[in-house]
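Researcher: Please translate sequence to structure tokens.
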Amino acid sequence: MQIRRAQTHDSAGIAAVHVRSWQAAFSGLVPREHLDALDPAREALVWAGRLTEPRRPDAGVLVAETGQGVVAFAGYAPARAPGTAEIGTLYVLPELWGTGVGSRLLAAVVDELTEAGRTRALLWVLEANDRARRFYEAAGWRADGAVEVDTTSGLPLIKLRYQRPLSRAVRAEPIRTQRLVLLPLAVAHADEMAKVLADPALHTFIGGLPETAGALRSRYARMLAGAPDPGVSWCNWVIRLEAESCLTGTVQATVGTAGRGRTAEIAWLVGTPWQRRGIATEAARALVGWLAGRSVHTAVAHVHPDHLVSAAVAAAAGLTPTDRVRDGEVRWQAALPVGTS
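Model: Translation complete:
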């Protein structure tokens, strides 16, 4: 599947998606006569006009195309509030619902808006359209309380406004310390890491069992594919001890937006032969400092109350325990001096 900017010759394909998706998605929600009156030929003329008229800055239409032609499209434009854009349309052929086409198209629009410097995006969803609401909520969109009544179909229909902040993805980069290099995770690290993490004792607190190199390769490939939510960044590193030219463990950060800023949940794991040498502390401190330089406001870690060594690492990295507990683990956190590096 290819996602690209719409061209004038796409008008018929866009119109067909528009009509078919409307008739399927809004059956029972809007009057049947309104849906039956939708005409693909007439809609194609409308879309041909839209695609040829001069576009406003940062406005556009993206289409998802397969061998059968246009199968989905999305339109967006600037909104009134500074730095805000509105996604006005996003439709997928009904037979492709639930296949990931809509999610990939939505992610592409979010990327376009983010690259254009927009800081927030919004859209409107029918209150009664449970499928659409679940779709957007799964992608990190949230209703903000704004409501409007749409009467274009002949009946008053309540629409809810959804929005989400936009920020550039955080991507793992090499991080150097006095003794270590944190290298962005690669599938090729799996063979060596399977040996580093082979001690079952390492899994006392994190659960599970040591993985084979093949299982690690598969898991690393899934991790490197990225989070399904475009607003979340999965950042993973292996820890290389320079003096011994070997890998010794991992650190990771899941970066998302919470409240008014970015939050990163961090974790670390060092192989048994390299423990009690300060490697986890050095790596965690370096990671927290790197995150602060990427506009991450809060670092969070979850530590089992019996894992005293991990608690010491969290404290050394500047985190303090809170009274919040998740799955038996205590939440530690720190406000980061954003902008430092």
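Researcher: Any highlights?
Model: The chain has a mean pLDDT of 90.
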